[in-house]
Amino acid sequence: MAISDDEVAMATVAPLAPVTFQRPVRSDLEEFFPKPYMARAMAAPDTEHPDGTPDHKAAGMSVLQQHVAFFDQNDDGIVYPWETYTGLRDIGLNVIFAAIVGLAFNVVFSYPTRKGSLPNLLLPVYIENVHKGKHPSDSGTYDTEGRYLPVNFENMFSKYGKTFPDKLTLKELWNMTEGNQTSFDLLGWILEKVEWALVYLIAKDDEGCLSKEAMRGLFDGSLFEKLAKANKKTD
Ligand code: HEM
Ligand SMILES: [Ca+2]
């Protein structure tokens, strides 16, 4: 059967690229909120939350900056390893795990986000420059300036969420990190696995799935705030 030019122009699948059938994209997002293709600098909306997280303050920061600002204990715009450690403890990691993971985040992100040209042995992460920490093999939900792209967030679920519409099973999360891998990018691929493994660990639900809401909250940092609050209550 011949495909008309009109059909070609708007198609989201290509007959000779089976992967486009296996990982479909959304074409109905505008029914839920305006301009899903427009990168949001300060809010992280999805189909269920068209305005993002109302009780979470952007405080003038980009969505990626908000993701990291949770760890900035004294709000001076710089995240030192001991601050990452404290934040990780607050969201429920044990002492050893928080120490290892906390140090690892600063080891990875301090150099790319540095001010000036020299590395700093105290491993600060400068929130102002955190967009420079972006790595390949990610979900594409943050753009290169640290904004949030609703369409790419939603497509994670249309592509990989085969069991439920609003959460990913562990296998599906794994498939997503595999599917996001770009070539010649071992480090980005490892980081992607570690980041999502951590999110899964701290936020999986009773059925062993990662909810869309937890993942959305990961992007604007509200997930960390929620977990810290819940943790404080149980102390
Ligand atoms: C000081 C602490 C942290 C820093 C500096 C940091 C930095 C970043 C940066 C720069 C990105 C953008 C990566 C990209 O889009 O290529 C990012 C994304 C991400 N981070 Fe963090 N992060 C921190 C803490 C955490 C923690 C504690 C977790 C998990 C619990 C986490 C999980 C993620 C995930 C899952 C992504 C999204 C990757 C994707 O789009 O596929 N981050 N982070
Ligand atoms: Ca600080």
TrEMBL record:
InterPro entries from the UniProt entry: Caleosin-related
GO MF annotations, alphabetized: calcium ion binding; monooxygenase activity
UniProtKB keywords: Membrane, Transmembrane, Transmembrane helix
Pfam family, one: Caleosin
Residues passing through the membrane, by range: 91-111
Signal peptide residue numbers: none
Homology family: Belongs to the caleosin family.
PANTHER family: PEROXYGENASE 3-RELATED (PTHR31495), PLANT SEED PEROXYGENASE (PTHR31495:SF37)
Name this protein carries in UniProt: Peroxygenase
Species the sequence originates in: Lactuca saligna (Willowleaf lettuce)
